[in-house]
From TrEMBL:
Its cofactor is pyridoxal 5'-phosphate. Belongs to the class-II pyridoxal-phosphate-dependent aminotransferase family. MalY/PatB cystathionine beta-lyase subfamily. The keyword Lyase applies. This is cysteine-S-conjugate beta-lyase. The lineage of its organism: Bacteria, Bacillati, Bacillota, Bacilli, Bacillales. Its EC number is 4.4.1.13. It comes from Planifilum fimeticola. PANTHER family: PROTEIN MALY. NCBIfam families: C_S_lyase_PatB.
Amino acid sequence: MKYDFDRVIDRRGTHCTQWDYVEDRFGMPDLLPFTISDMDIPSPTAILKALENRVKHGIFGYTRWNHREFKGAVRRWFARRFSADIDEDWIVYSPSVIYSCSKLIGMLSEEGDHVVVQTPAYDAFHPMVKALRRRWVPNELKDVQGRYELDFADLEKKLAHPKAKILLWCSPHNPTGRVWRRWELEEVIRLCRKHRVAVISDEIHMDIVYAPGRHIPITQVADGHLEGVFLCTSASKTFNIPGLGGSYAILPNPDIRRRFLTTLKERDGLSSASIPGTLATIEGYNHAEDWVDSLVEYLQDNMKAVSSFLRRHLPEFRFTMPEATYLAWIDASRTPFTEEELQEALIRRGKVAIMPGSVYGANTASFLRMNVGCPRSKVLEGLKRMKTAVDQLHRDLGD
């Protein structure tokens, strides 16, 4: 193996959300966590060396992002990875993807307007929409034998409402792992253009896509609606650098871009970029492409390990290999247990923390979302603990 993704690194004692603060969500410390979506895998050497050299410099003053080195790295990455032509003028810095989404919703709609979202949905979306005093309008994805599909009839009905102003899109989709096909994206754009609805697309998982899938940035299918499309993303999932700070958005609409930058700098005082986050993005995009390719292969094998284990040892759990992300979306609906019973057993019997499906939508309480962005030994240990918990539940039922 060219890169040692099997190496186990102890993250405890580093103020790590996933490991050190697992008790906050699950009520018990010292659980083996498969929760928040970062990885237990170190960033590529190119990034680590660049950060080490920058630390040795010793001065960490106010830093600009609006230069060719940063924006050129982004433009070239999109050209190489997605055959996408991105104008450097469209690229703007942002402290986080959720910040970008929140500010854009504020600019493109009024209080009480509708924000249409495919559900199940990334769990940060709903509280953000609620806090902005917009109406959350779910467009439920259809589970077709484990593969999620868009309900276009329902989507058009929701977009046609006079108060519908925004489609909050997720591509690739979290938590289901769908990679949207070109025809699906084109139909989404057609409907949004028809009903004059803006598209805010969270594409933070764009680089973790499994063969033969291919991510298509929303800007590539936005003919006739380009000024109504807003792409928000980051290198954070790709290189495991969310703690370094920083993201970027691609905003073809010049008026919204100007308003966004005014808000960033003059209202919120956030225009000075994170030094480590910006440097890591540049170095990763310029020098770590081979590392990403190897990482994706490794993560796909982790998913295969989940599939094999469940098929052999926990066949009542249904698992369809995702097309993207390192988030295994596991269907427990064929088990005789409630979500509460299963979570209680996982935590207290298995000593393992796996996200409950209800976090992502009202109709997904029978699911688990398991983060497999980690060495394979951890994945296998987590699955064994899951089996321990489920076996005990069956014994309690007298099976």
